[in-house]
Design goal:
Number of strands: 11
Helix content: under 10%
Order of helices and strands: EEEEEEEEEEE
Shape: globular
Largest sheet: 7 strands, mixed
Number of helices: 0
Strand content: over 45%
Structural class: mainly beta
Distance between the termini: 40 Å
Radius of gyration: 13 Å
């Protein structure tokens, strides 16, 4: 069982930045494929960013490419999402997820609100 706890959400003005954190339980964090998704108001949950299985490559949704950066610290069992140049349309609940070889775990989500 993997538990994920997100933090770092809040209210920010358009053009501003936030950094989300996701702390994970488990002794094999470095083997999890970590990622972030979001659910905008009235929309389905959507992919935002993720690592490859090797942890070397990163992938981003077109809508955030060049503005968001996913990173991880295996020593701290934590994955981050640095969000720059935020737009009103980035307003959403952001969820951290961990793929443990087919078993998917989700955090409870953290709200990000971008005011225009």
């Amino acid at each position: 069982q993997v538990q994920l706890v997100e933090s770092g959400g809040g209210l920010v003005q358009a053009g501003g930045s936030l950094r989300l954190s996701c702390a994970a339980s488990g002794r094999t964090f470095s083997t999890y494929r970590m990622g972030w998704s979001r659910q905008r108001p009235g929309k389905e949950r959507e992919f935002v960013a993720a690592f490859s299985w090797s942890g070397v490559n990163t992938y981003y949704a077109d809508s955030v490419k060049g503005r968001f950066t996913i990173s991880r610290d295996n020593a701290k069992n934590t994955v981050y999402l640095q969000m720059n140049s935020l737009k009103a349309e980035d307003t959403a609940v952001y969820y951290c997820n961990a793929d443990d070889r087919g078993r998917i775990y989700w955090g409870q989500g953290t709200q990000v609100t971008v005011s225009s």
